[in-house]
Amino acid sequence: MSNSPSLIIKSVEAIPVALPLKKSMHMAGVVISNAYNLIVRIETQNGMIGWGESASAPTMTGDLLPGMVAAVRDHLAPLLIGQDALHHAALMDKVSKEIYRNTGAKCAIECALLDLCGKALGIPVYDLIGGARRLCFNPMVLLGSGSSDEDLHDALSKQKMGIEFFKIKVGARPIQEDIAHTLRLRKELGPNTTLCADANMGLTSSETVAYCKTTESVNLLFFEQPLRSGNLNGMAQLASSISVPLCGDESITAIEDIISLSQAKAIQGVNLKIIKLGGISPVINAAYICESLGLSVNLACKVAESSIAAAALFHTGAVLPNLDWGISVTNQYLAEDIVLDPIRAIDGVVTLGRKPGLGIEVDEEKMRRFTIDAK
Ligand SMILES: [Mg+2]
What we know:
The chain has 375 residues and is of the alpha/beta class. 38% of the residues lie in helices and 20% in strands. The chain binds magnesium ion (MG).
């Protein structure tokens, strides 16, 4: 009789939740007050539980919560039940082929499988996915309250807590106001704080040029997704006319997009999200491709995801060959997290420990209180 462990999957549950934000996030074209996320709970026959989470993202992946629930419940769960979770890579091959796109649903499943495997083997997920290159992170914080005064107040108070890396959300108000806001933040935060900006596709080419030229003295680390996602030529023209490096976010829905944008010289770096590429493994693959293409890498959660997704992102960030444009998680923007010991920065630093799996303990009763009907 074999002594090898097995983790036979008994159930796969898709749980739709609405998690309220502490305050609304103002981005180009959208104001987010609640995070409509999919939680995936996989239980094995021996009573172990693995967790995954993905945000719905209508303007990014196109994933809507009812569709994410249906993808897991009707298409992906039947593939997994009765299978051994330790065969996670082979299972994800099946999952990725079963339905087109639906990257959020696939991502939440992979996270839950890896959480389970790590728990069963007594090792952190980063040990399962290649081994850690870094365990300490200085995460960046988003500034997107919609009010310049409030953003400045937030940034100054975070700076006192050791945070020295901010992403300014632009494109949701007249460009002259974004310019004044950006210059003001640099002046008040001082020269040593790292600043970048993200327009979430909300600008025209001429607005982007005006913004980047006028804020040259701010020394933005990068400028993210000024134009619509399909506008590859526009991004390439912009890249040749401004000095700030361009980062692709919404325009990257698959590894092929990274290669196309790089070949067109439209970007100098990428924002990778596990919900966009369909899980942790595709993001690791993408990061190695970025390494060979000479692209910078920023790793980010969607606004907003709980400590489940934040943990998955840090474990991913631990193993990437390069993370020079930083990492941002979004659980701190939620009014309430759904784990017992939420992930947080201490003196500006998040440190991954050696707890098995994703290293988080979901407060299931609390999580269930945020469940909504998403048929
Ligand atoms: Mg972005």
